[in-house]
Amino acid sequence: MLACARRAVSMASAASLDLGQLAQEAEALASAVRGALGPRGGQVLLTRPTGETLFTRDGRRVLEALSLAPPTARMMVACVSMHHSMTGDGAKTFIILLAKLLRGLQAVLDKREGSPFCEDIQRGERHQRSCHSLKQISQSIMTFQTLLLDHVMAQDLRKHFLSAFSNWEGEISRDTIESILEAYFCGRIGYSDQKLLSQLSSDFYYKCIPFKNDRNEMLNLVNEYFVELHFAVTGLPVSNSRILEGLILPRDFAVYCPAGGDIRILIVTESIHSALSAPGLEFVINAEAQYQASQIWITKRTEAIMKHLQNSNIKVLLSSVKQQEIVIYYAKINGISIVECLSSEEISLLCKITGISPFIPTWDNIHSEISETMIAKFCQPLVVGSKRFVHLGLTRTCTFQPHCVIFCGPVHGVTEQHASAFHGAFKMLQQLFKAVDLTVHCSWQHSDTQQKSIMENISCNGDKVSDQQLKTCMAETEKQFIDSSWVGENPSCTQTVVQKSSNLAMPIENFERDFMFSALIHRGSSLRRVQKLPLKCKHPSEMWVKNTSETIVNNHGICNEAMTAKENTTTSVVSKEITAAKDFWKAGNPFNYEKSYKYTVQSYTNLVIQQGSVLPVGGNFEILLHYYLHSYAKQCQEPKITVVSTVIAEALLSIPKILYRTTNKNSFPQVYFKATSALRTNQQLPMSQQGLESVYCKYQLVVSVLHCLTKLLTIDLIIGIRRLPQKTEDNDSEDDL
Amino acid sequence: MSRIEAKKPSLCTSEPLTKEVVSYSLSVLSGILKSCYGPTGRLKQLHNGMGGYVRTTSQSSVLLGGLSITHPVLKVLTASVQNHISRFSDCGLFTAILCCSLVENFQKINFAACTVTKISRHLLSLCIDYLKSEACVCRIAVDFDSIKTLLSLVHSVLASKPACMLNKTETNHISTLVLKAFLLTIPHTVETNVVLGRCVIVPVKDKRVMDSTVFPGLLIEVPAFQLARTFPIKRISSSTIKMALFCISMSGDISNTGEGTVIVHHGISLEVAVLDQLLSLGKQLVNDQVGLVVCQKVIHPSLKVYLKEHHVITIDRIGVSMMEPLSQMTGSQPIASLHSLSPTYYGSLKDLRTESFGSKHFLHLIPSDTLVCSLILCNRNEMAWDELKVACQTAEHVLQLTIKQPLALLGGGCTETHLASYIRHKSFTLPTSALKAIDCSWTQYQLVADAFCHSLECVARCLEHDDCEILTDTVYGHFWSVQSEFPSDCNWSDLVLKCGCGIYSKQQNLNWRVLQSQCTPFTPQSCSNESFVNSTDHLVLDCFTAKCSGLQVAVETANLILDLSYIVEDQN
């Protein structure tokens, strides 16, 4: 058996992972999308094997269309696709960043001397050595991503974030939404239609949302059913694209009987006309008369059902299957319109919006009342281009006000591009309203970093922290342990743990990092509340409000203090931020930043990224992260982390470099110089462009790239096999016999 | 397993527009299209080189459908023109030529794609705003009180298709027929939602063009032997024939029996049972005094015989396409049940006759309300007939579009030259605030505007294929053509007769210059419309909706093509 396995290995072609080659592949991929990056990027034309052409500036589409052969390149593309399908954005930046990172790491490895990744082993084969150092790099990157990134985001970057919300309730102004969307479309479609599409999508956003609080549900629904909520018409100018009230079913009526007023609609998922025999049943014919009689009976039954529908004042029948001609005939007699062959997605969308379930005609309910109906304001044919569609104006019963988009364009390639960019924009908005909770990562970090040396001591804060809070902190630490080990717990259990841990005099050095400390205190306070209130509030702003009522001074003060351990007093930090915000506002910004910015500053709580955090476009995030990673790397004691964060910091700069490649007024060195000098003097970044982008998306992008990188670097051998990799091996047991 | 092949990597081209292959194939395509344009356009013969069907044409729809284009850039161009044609039928060549020349001219000035896009977008909005405004003098309102402008529209469409091989009288004849057929499809009573009827084109290919004619109602072709055995039809009154229209099969087949099993005992014939049902249905039809039974599918011969014995005419296998006009015309609802017949679903006909044309025989169904008509289209030559059919359909579509928006643009190149002089004038006097909004310099704007106007004039220029000089006047900005063999000392005014659209004739106050020569911008003016209302000749008119949309599509497509930075071709 062993010999057999050996032979199998020798037959397959195997190659070790070469960092240089990886970098080359990533660069080849990056070069295909580089031209399309940023607001001045051009379009890419894709042709499919079927001969269709497609315009795109979507990095994912381009990369997938390249269909490169190397398995590692395919893996990179798969990572990009995964990231893109999640966030709807950032595919181009992803691959460019990845290429730069790989190149940067290769340079580090090539240097050899002084590199922290090469000193450990001096003997052994070259291959083994490189393999080992790759493994080490990937580990350091993982550590960086789990520990350091959040730290830098929370401590340094956060003060630069702006909030998209204009008030406490999380309302978002139209101007802000438009500038976020415009910035998004700048990178996704051709110049001429950017304005149009950003207006169209912000219109759609406001039209679909009945109450501002149902934002997330609405976005989920739009993203899930986007295929049903849009359709394309070719041959018309792009300017004819518009939003229509109601839903459109892309097919004509099988029967159309005009009706006015409120129209009652019924959904059916099976044929109304029953057949002579059903599956699994036998129908025996004894005489010709019997056959005729049964035929007549079936017809009469259909007639009775349709009559009953008419009596129940049903005007429209939406069917997922094709109905028999006889049904259509009786529908026409009874003044009922029928739309056939609805897809299952359309049926589920309709059911979701209206909250009804399909009607199943049986003998029993032919005479009973029909309750599962929806009401529409109108249901009429709509002619778009030369095709006839069904236009359905449903009255709202849930969190989504039904609207749909019509995309017009000269060719299919353009309408498809617009539709996918539109869909991406709504995915992006969904990301915008997400927050990164530090505590989520904390439980991780905690177990990870148990053994790590303590870098900063927070004992200086000790005297300001009241005893009671310290106790809860310890309790919280204990709870974190339990969390990380996935033990299910109930309140009473926690209670006992609290008791126990408060008795144990845990050394204060165990609270490793300042930022974590703040989070822990916060969690502690919320834990206290959990003990009082049975329900834990999830909405961050709400949570904050509740916290204020309890321990506003202590809690808030400590949070800020802990976060900015090097600063002397809390108040000075906050006041500085506010003055900075005021300056920013005075600079003639169209949005009311003062208010929103204050909000951001005040609500420094347990979130690395607040809901709705945004930054101005134009590589600001990259420059900021670059700057702070660099300054972190300078102080960092751990050589591996220093190297990794320097490489990442350098790679981040490649994005603004490409963005400012052509403009004469703002060349990259100028922009970079202005930004860093502003940061050194603690000022706001200069803003060269209008438009905002979601910080969450950017953060997610960096995390995804680092994940992809670690995944790539942990491979040591690439083995080519002849057949498809099998997921399960069932024949193992047989071999053993 | 052996069928699985590794995917080939894709072929990538960066900066495709700078490649020679693109500009070469673009110039070939635009050469083909330009030479087809207008009433004097050259014909193209399409064949596959293997003895297949040969088509002579000058129409964009046929031409672009026939050409097999491989380069992705050109594919985009042709696809967008074809989509335009499928929506509007008309102005396909205009769109294609304009798009080609825009790409060529914009490439020459070699600015960043985004600058060109922004400026051309602005120019386009100037054009569209002007065309849609009341101040526009290159459009005329269509007057439905007289058929003159409508006839001019149809005439212009037919005249611009030289491959139909029509002479002047034939063009006039067909124009009148098309307009007549269109008028027959308009309902008498106008409700809020107007639904136009249908015009069915019936091919007769062995007669002269002048034999073409229009019938109200439907013509259904029947074999000659069936026609010979017709008998006096059963009527309810002198002007009403009751008819029944069936949309299900009456052939006596067993309808679907479901997914389970059906067991039939020995000696029982389901066919007999169904036939019994059919015959009882026939009996009811006879009792209800139905004179004509039409079925979309097949009627069982026994039923046919039975009905014939009772003097009921049967027509079967008319197909699904005829069902809608039939039910529209006669008011009968398609019946889908063999068991219950409701007398309310019978329709009525005014009369039923037999007609024969050449070698073909027809049953002519004459309705009391004409919403449906049949246009018998004759042409001696098969190829020319095909071309004529497409031209007639285009003309009908143009009329439908004109009813929706009762405007027409001056044809014969006058709209293009007029629009070019309007844009020149507008861009010359553009306020600096507008420039700031577009974020470009005055020179940039002028250069792009010049390329834009040049492209418009280039389209007008393509109307003349014989060695002609093209002039434009400096008052109206219209299109004038003169023969090129003229003595060098004579005045332009001695040579010109009429402008392209026919609205202006030679006047004292006009000055001419060669089209596309340098000149100072001027405001194109209008004159009173009386001159053309009184004139007896046809004006050359274009469909307003189709041309506006064509203009937009051409500019948008040209911008798309210019914006390309990369091409990825899938090689699988």
Automatic annotation (TrEMBL), chain A:
InterPro entries documented for this protein: BBS10, Chaperone_TCP-1, Cpn60/GroEL/TCP-1, GroEL-like_apical_dom_sf, GROEL-like_equatorial_sf
Keywords per UniProt: ATP-binding, Chaperone, Nucleotide-binding
Pfam families xref list: Cpn60_TCP1
SUPFAM superfamilies noted in UniProt: GroEL equatorial domain-like
Entry's Gene Ontology molecular function annotations: ATP binding; ATP-dependent protein folding chaperone
Domain of life where this protein originates: Eukaryota
Record GO biological process: chaperone-mediated protein complex assembly
Key word Nucleotide-binding present: yes
UniProt similarity note: Belongs to the TCP-1 chaperonin family.
Protein name from the UniProt record: Bardet-Biedl syndrome 10
UniProtKB/TrEMBL annotation, chain B:
Sample GO molecular function, one term: unfolded protein binding
Extent of the signal sequence: none
Keyword Membrane on entry: no
Claim: Repeat is one of the keywords in the record: no
Compartments, as annotated in UniProt: Cytoplasm, Cytoskeleton, Microtubule organizing center, Centrosome; Cytoplasm, Cytosol; Nucleus
Entry keywords, A to Z: ATP-binding, Chaperone, Cytoplasm, Cytoskeleton, Nucleotide-binding, Nucleus
Database matches in InterPro entries: Cpn60/GroEL/TCP-1, GroEL-like_apical_dom_sf, GROEL-like_equatorial_sf, MKKS, TCP-1-like_intermed_sf
One GO term describing the cellular component: nucleus
Gene3D superfamilies (alphabetical): GroEL, GroEL-like equatorial domain, TCP-1-like chaperonin intermediate domain
Role of this protein: Probable molecular chaperone that assists the folding of proteins upon ATP hydrolysis. Plays a role in the assembly of BBSome, a complex involved in ciliogenesis regulating transports vesicles to the cilia. May play a role in protein processing in limb, cardiac and reproductive system development. May play a role in cytokinesis.
Record protein name field: Molecular chaperone MKKS
Species this chain originates from: Pelusios castaneus
